[in-house]
Specification:
about 575 residues; alpha+beta; 9-stranded mixed sheet; 6-stranded antiparallel β-barrel; 19 helices; about 35% helix; about 20% strand; globular; Transposase domain-containing protein
Length: about 575
């Protein structure tokens, strides 16, 4: 009942109390008040800071709540990623929420709250904001902690934040100032009302030099994080959600719409791109919560929409619309980000290859858009390969999970009064079921049917047929049920398949019956052939064939290229291990 009320339907506490008054006639053991059922805390410890109010929930308390729902015997070390960011709470007020969030990175886990601040500006003084956190984290790093009789070692994985938040945490120059680069000593220069950073080969910053404040132009004070035994350069990676999706990709689109005349698109070209985007809506798989929107709504696009444009739809909708040089410059950032998001592609291409591609991209940006384009977001991408070398693919240290969780925290606030108390009590009430952490990797078959097709029935002894298969955070369906979720590839991505049936043998083995595309060609050939990323123009389907789910490689997005051909792109996060 508590899960139904707090997680599944998020009903109001007054409605839950009314429901309990009805149910108690049939279940006398139930309490009459929602606060008793949900074990709502009766008080919240609030501390006043200069610019607002602060509540410290505690890192160890948060970790223990998470560990209740996993098999603790599987882990000896907890690698924790932290995030600090601000979010406005109300449209008619300057009230902001600044939580300290955490997420365990060495197993699948949603973010959790360590501390909360609300006020009309950033939390100040920063030493008070971080004091309890630094003391507790230092203790856990030195001594670890025990839960249910098992000892856990604690390690700081990273601090993943946007550029303003990183500058706030580290007490350094903002991304709009001189000497603002966190990774190198490039000072920048003033050009056309902007600070541009032209040198991508400046001396790299190090933890030792940062702690000595060797570059006085870079520092604004001493960060309380100096008290932690961490590398203050490497532990603050560049988040591609803010840097590339909301930074470079948005800047490119705005430049094409409103930039210099030699790169600005005509209204006719803008309409062609918008029409193509809108037409792709019905072909986007269920993994994409936000479908493509017109460029008329660009100001309202979210980070996930810029990511989808960069990785999946941009190469098609911009084709034969942008000038060749501009299109190839876009393909550079599309190609290199696609590589850096995948362990498989990183291994195949190598980091030096990607670094060279980044340098070419920045050089082309300078030639196409002028020096004024080379602001912080464009410069800092030259250092992103260093972070990939430390942490792995970009999604291992991106802010997407934290950004989504911030939105969930905002929904917990119903009134401008007692903001921290509301959030603290709602968080204390929410108990996540075990399947929240485990079911994503379990194969789940849904919607049994008997419509076929079936092949090789005598050999395989088919037992049941299904319309839907969910596993590893992806959904596959048969073509007749949903034609946007029915494409995948087998055998290292070389066989793109349209699914027509999902079948199970008497021994419980799962097979896909479908039609394979027979003809493949590249969607683009610069900077490499698109087929190197398993991106194809495909056509001509075979007769029905059979594949074991054990040979699954990735799910695909497939949408029309012309009247007889289709574009097929792999969904990068769906690659099998």
């Amino acid at each position: 009942l508590t899960h139904w009320a707090t997680v599944k339907h998020n009903i109001s506490r007054s409605a839950l109390t009314d429901l309990l008054h009805i149910l108690v006639s049939y279940h006398p053991e139930l309490p009459l008040d929602s606060r008793t059922l949900l074990e709502t805390p009766v008080s919240t410890e609030i501390i006043s800071l200069n610019t607002g109010e602060f509540c410290y929930i505690g890192l160890e308390n948060a970790l223990k709540k998470v560990l209740r729902y996993i098999n603790c015997q599987l882990f000896q070390k907890l690698e924790i990623c932290f995030n600090v960011d601000g979010i406005p709470l109300f449209k008619s007020s300057k009230e902001q929420l600044w939580p300290i969030l955490g997420q365990i990175k060495n197993f699948e886990c949603r973010p959790f709250v360590v501390a909360l601040f609300s006020g009309k500006s950033k939390p100040k003084p920063i030493n008070q904001y971080f004091n309890n956190f630094v003391i507790e984290l230092n203790n856990l790093l030195q001594n670890g902690f025990c839960f249910n009789g098992k000892f856990f070692e604690i390690k700081v994985h990273s601090f993943v934040c946007d550029a303003p938040a990183r500058a706030f945490l580290k007490c350094i120059k903002s991304h709009t100032g001189y000497s603002c680069c966190e990774k190198c000593t490039e000072g920048g220069q003033y050009y056309k009302n902007k600070i541009v950073l032209l040198n991508t080969n400046a001396q790299k910053r190090t933890n030792e030099l940062f702690r000595k404040q060797d570059d006085i132009e870079h520092h604004l004070g001493e960060t309380p994080l100096l008290k932690l035994p961490i590398d203050l350069i490497k532990c603050f990676p560049i988040d591609y959600m803010h840097n590339i999706c909301l930074g470079i990709m948005r800047k490119l689109l705005n430049t094409w719409l409103k930039g210099p005349l030699h790169v600005r698109l005509s209204q006719c070209s803008v309409n062609i791109i918008s029409d193509r985007l809108i037409n792709l809506k019905i072909y986007m798989p269920s993994e994409f919560n936000r479908k493509p929107r017109s460029l008329d709504e660009l100001a309202n696009w979210k980070a996930t929409e810029f990511r989808s444009f960069l990785l999946y739809v941009g190469p098609f909708v911009l084709r034969n619309v942008l000038d060749t040089a501009v299109y190839e410059n876009f393909l550079l950032i599309h190609f290199l980000v696609s590589i850096l998001l995948s362990d498989i592609h990183i291994k195949n291409f190598g980091i030096p290859f990607v670094q060279n591609m980044i340098n070419i991209f920045i050089k082309h940006c300078k030639n196409l858009y002028g020096l004024e384009f080379l602001v912080y977001n464009v410069h800092i991408v030259s250092h992103i390969c260093d972070d990939v070398n430390v942490f792995g693919p970009l999604d291992k240290f991106s802010a997407f999970a934290f950004e989504s969780y911030l939105g969930q925290l905002k929904k917990l606030v119903k009134s401008p009064k007692n903001i921290l108390q509301q959030i603290h009590r709602r968080l204390a009430e929410i108990n996540l079921p075990i399947d929240n952490f485990t079911q994503n990797n379990i194969e789940r078959l849904k919607y049994e049917h008997v419509l076929g097709p079936l092949i090789n029935s005598n050999h395989y002894n088919w037992k049941k047929q299904f319309k839907k298969l969910c596993f590893n955070n992806i959904t596959l369906t048969i073509y007749s049920y949903n034609n946007s979720d029915c494409y995948c590839s087998f055998f290292h991505g070389n066989a793109v398949v349209q699914i027509h049936n999902i079948v199970v043998t008497t021994k419980g083995r799962i097979y896909i019956i479908g039609k394979q595309f027979l003809e493949y060609q590249d969607l683009y050939s610069y900077p490499c052939q698109s087929s190197d990323l398993n991106i194809f123009i495909v056509k001509n389907l075979s007769t029905f064939k059979l594949w074991s789910i054990n040979n699954f490689f990735n799910k695909c997005i497939v949408y029309p290229f012309n009247n007889i051909s289709f574009v097929s792109l792999p969904i990068i996060h769906s690659f099998s291990n």
